[in-house]
Write a structure and sequence with these properties.
Low-confidence stretches: none
Structural class: alpha+beta
CATH topology of the largest domain: Heat Shock Protein 90
Number of helices: 15
Helix content: 40-55%
Number of strands: 22
Oligomer: single chain
Shape: flat
Number of domains: 3
Mean pLDDT: 87
């Protein structure tokens, strides 16, 4: 690591992937908590010999070999870190002091420190005890998508295949020559990846994606008993709710029910995008609901919610996180949580290309309420969109144009007034000077008032036209007569 990069790390301070630890001669116990939390999250770097504020105190040169030896021994002890890991500390030299850097990669296992699981949240090591949180960590560590899990005992009678004709029509409405148009029911399901083979076990059958998209309600409850989306209106009765809708059916019907709830309780403000009218309400609700339906982790016990309040609306759902923190259009990487379900929704026109949802939320959210939305990635994914019933994008745009015109006119008038004031001052100065020096030439006047000869000529011509100045006698031997 070069010195410039190291100084940048010191300036930024502790983050979700950087931890500073004091270490005069021995390693503190909380260092191993950080090792555990880094292993369970995204990995990171621990720097021994640096105080919390970024001051480099260093590790005693004599103690460095023993510190490294003891550290390697501890992380290899199953009573301390389980499962055990091998980490290779690195010695850094900075400003005459020695710092020990320990790089901790993300692990495919869930680790514990002294039989307690820790997770990394911002710059803190947090003890995890809730069963749901621990389950979410195991889900995050999996290398397969749970939507692909095969359920060999699911048969056609367990699915709502009567919905397939409607699905075909939705696909054709988006693409006139969509290949699903002429496929049989079985071919369509295979084409969408909803019927397949588990290559690790050889089992054939419908997968979880098929159950979530076409399963009968009782079948969905049997396979994912915690699945539901709770839609709540909470504007007047803040302790309970003003309206509520519990949705536990297949994803396509869930989308339509939740969109109806949004359309019932949200203003549909007028907005023109070019020459076409766009429903900001529908565009925003669509992105929020599509995300919470198709990008969630269905095996989690966390119940998804869609909540409308007076000043905001938000959705939150269990998530298979790849990072932790806010998402913006300039700082996000599209990452499909359920690629089969996502592709299915794109085929029937209820979702766009991966990544467009973030851009649409920021674009339409600002025009709907005057403020940007918030998207937070983590084990629970959240989208919050501010609400302001009194805000109008058209009115705000009109007011901005008026303000810009006012500012432009003020600047223009100021310039005009400055020119007028400057012109009047020059005229007065010329009259005073010629009153005291009636035989002065135009060159003399230009030098006296600090202007060009051409400016003085124009000023004298104006004064003569206004009968404030006269010339008496010849050009060379004449004199000026100031009338006023």
């Amino acid at each position: 690591m070069n010195e410039k990069k190291f100084e940048t790390i010191l300036t930024v301070g502790e983050t979700v992937a950087v931890e500073f630890k004091q270490c005069s001669g021995s390693i503190s116990a909380d260092t191993y908590k950080t090792v555990c939390s880094f292993l369970n999250r995204y990995g990171g770097d621990i720097y021994l010999g640096i105080e919390n504020n970024g001051t480099v105190a260093g590790v005693s040169q004599k103690a460095v070999p023993d510190v490294i030896k003891n550290f390697i021994k501890m992380v290899g002890n199953p009573e301390i870190i389980s499962p055990t890991v091998y980490l290779a500390p690195e010695i850094l030299e900075y400003d005459g002091r020695q710092v020990i850097r320990i790089h901790v990669p993300p692990s495919s296992e869930v680790h514990s420190y002294k039989k307690t699981i820790y997770d990394r949240v911002d710059d803190a090591d947090v003890k995890v005890t809730a069963t749901g949180q621990i389950a979410a960590m195991y889900i995050r560590k999996q290398n397969v998508f749970t939507e692909k899990n095969i359920y060999p005992y699911v048969r056609e009678e367990h699915l709502r295949l009567d919905n397939l004709q409607r699905i075909r029509q939705m696909a054709v409405n988006r693409y006139k020559s969509h290949p699903w148009k002429n496929l049989t029911d079985a071919e369509l399901l295979q084409s969408a990846g909803l019927f397949g083979t588990d290559m690790s076990t050889g089992e054939k059958g419908y997968n979880l994606a098929a159950v979530m998209l076409f399963g009968r309600d009782e079948v969905i409850r049997s396979i994912v008993p915690a699945y539901r989306t709770d839609a709540i209106l909470r504007k007047i009765n803040l302790n309970r709710y003003d309206d509520r809708l519990i949705v536990e059916t297949n994803l396509v019907d869930s989308y339509e029910l939740l969109m109806g709830f949004a359309q019932k309780h949200l203003w549909d403000k007028f907005f023109l995008d070019g020459d076409a009218r766009v429903s900001l309400r529908d565009a925003i609700a669509r992105e929020m609901l599509v995300n919470t339906l198709i990008h969630r982790e269905f095996t989690s016990s966390y119940i998804a919610r869609f909540v409308i309040e007076k000043n905001r609306m938000f959705v939150e759902n269990a998530n298979r996180a790849t990072k932790n923190g806010p998402i913006t259009p300039n700082d996000f990487e599209p990452n499909p949580k359920n690629p089969l379900i996502s592709s299915f929704f794109r085929n029937i026109g209820l979702a766009d290309e991966l990544g467009s949802g973030v851009r649409n939320l920021y674009r339409y959210g600002l025009r709907y309420s005057g403020k940007d939305p918030e998207l937070i990635d983590g084990d629970v994914f959240r989208i919050a969109v501010p609400l302001n019933d009194a805000y109008s994008f058209d009115e705000a745009s009109s007011n901005m144009k008026i303000k810009r015109n006012i500012k432009r006119n003020i600047k223009r008038n100021i310039k005009r007034n400055i020119k007028r004031t400057d012109r009047a001052l020059i005229e007065k100065t010329v009259l005073v000077y010629l009153g005291e020096h009636p035989e002065a030439t135009q060159v003399d006047v230009a030098k006296a008032v600090g202007k060009s000869r051409r400016a003085v000529q124009d000023t004298i011509a104006t004064l003569k036209d206004r009968k404030l100045l006269e010339r008496e006698g010849a050009r060379k031997n004449g004199r000026w007569i100031v009338k006023q």
